[in-house]
Amino acid sequence: MTRMEHVRFCMLCGMGKLMSLGGFAGTRFLGKCLGGLIWHFIPERRRLAAENIASHLDLSAAEAKAVAHASFLNTGQSFLELLLTQRFGFDFPRLAVEPPELLEKLRSCQRPVVAATAHFGAWELLAPLLGQLYQDRPRLVVVRRYDDNAAQAFIERQRQATGAKMIGHRLAAMTVLRALHKNGIAAFLVDHNTKPEEALFIPFLKEKAAVNAGPALLAVRARALVWPVVLSRRGKDYVFRLQPPLDTAELEGSIDDKIRQTAVFYTRAIENFVKSEPEQWFWMHNRWKTRPQLDASTAASAANAKKTPGTTGGSA
Question: Of 124, 98, 45, 132, which is closest to residue 242 (Cα–Cα)?
Fold first, then answer.
């Protein structure tokens, strides 16, 4: 960082520490205020969210607007919970696990793990949990990096508070494979829009969406378990939710077949999470922006992924 960037980094750290003094209650209040401001001052995102909810969940306009508003409040809280990562973990008194037996299987498994998650619930607090799963194995979270070096350094400092290492998505492939070959865990946000050359087009909430093939490819190459996980918010409490994993070592067919099966698996898993608590998903994101081009694009994108895996991570 330059001297000026370092000054801004220090300012961000100071502001973050000040804003976190209110703890979880204060952050929850400020987060809802932030979400309300975004709802009020960015009408195009408000309309996008409400229209997507109405069309993809078969809700009335009034119902969709209510879900969209709740989603904006959730998003505001998620943004500011970045300031509380050092205070959160499996020993947090208001954290539950659903189902607890799956968490025990995840902790005890001696296999490489790809965690598939989403911009859902309290997603900024998920990294501290993943960082605490293992102590003697690599723990990676693949994210998009910010162009602003000061902001990137501050966000990285917060997210790595409990041992999980942040990896920029564009150069993640080999680092992730090395970690998986050591039975590590690598987490990906798999619910964001993706460039056509990195995508498989898979139905998601009744419409084909561009799904990143990179995490599927890396999981297949490492013969990893793919675990869908999210951190839901239930009032003042949090719930670490898991779905049963996919064992990519048991898949049949060509590598393209296995990549598609894996991508379909985590896409459907995220879809199930969203359907169960739609107000907790990041609806203001234009998830269906990239459209399918030709029928052959699916096979072509998988082939491209094998050459240059698009491990596009996501971060708000």
Answer: 98
pTM of the entire structure? 0.91
Rounded CA separation 113/225 (Å) = 5
pLDDT at residue 208 greater than cutoff 70 = yes
What are the sequence ranges of the domains in the chain?
A: 92-307
193: which 2 tokens?
């829009």
The residue whose two tokens read 């269906």 is: 288
The residues with which 187 forms a beta bridge, in sequence order, are 115, 141
Tokens 């608590």: give the residue: 277
Give percent helix, percent strand, percent coil of the chain, each to the nearest 5: 55, 20, 25
- Residue 75, both tokens: 């998003």
Q: Give the CB-side neighbour count of residue 303, counting CA atoms within 13 A.
A: 5
Residue 108 has pLDDT above 60, yes or no: yes
Measure the CA–CA gap between 112 and 237, rounded to whole angstroms: 30
Q: What is the DSSP letter of 59?
A: -
Compute the chain's Rg from CA coordinates.
Answer: 19
Which pLDDT value is given to residue 130?
92
